[in-house]
Amino acid sequence: MAEEEMMDERPPMDAAMDMPTQNRMPAEAVQRLMQPSEEIQAVLIARISNMAPNELKMLDSAITPDVARILMKLLPELREIIAQIGQAPQRPPMGALGGM
Degrees (nearest 5) of the Cα angle 88, 36, 62? Predict the structure, then answer.
């Protein structure tokens, strides 16, 4: 029984685990972390390419400019994708994501 009780107990969280990553990492590491990745960008483009047109319209209309800014902070690769889409002359911008 004592073993079962010990197995159920979780070790206390280290105080550093509660801190945001930016506060634990050197500034250079945080800066590198926030740089866009070509690999992630390629995956996002592939996923977007596989979405149905109605899904893209729903996504575009659902994402407000404020949400888009947060998403671009989370996924800096989106900024480049949106810029590329914005340069395409055949599609007028629709929503926050530029009419993906």
Answer: 55
Question: First and final CA of the chain: distance in angstroms?
Answer: 58
Question: Residue 87 phi/psi, 5° resolution?
Answer: -85, -15
Residue spans of alpha helices (H) in 15-64 = 15-18, 21-24, 27-33, 38-49, 53-62
Whether this model's pTM surpasses 0.85: no
pLDDT confidence of residue 23: 63
Give the amino acid at 21. T
Positive or negative torsion for Cα 77, 80, 83, 87: negative
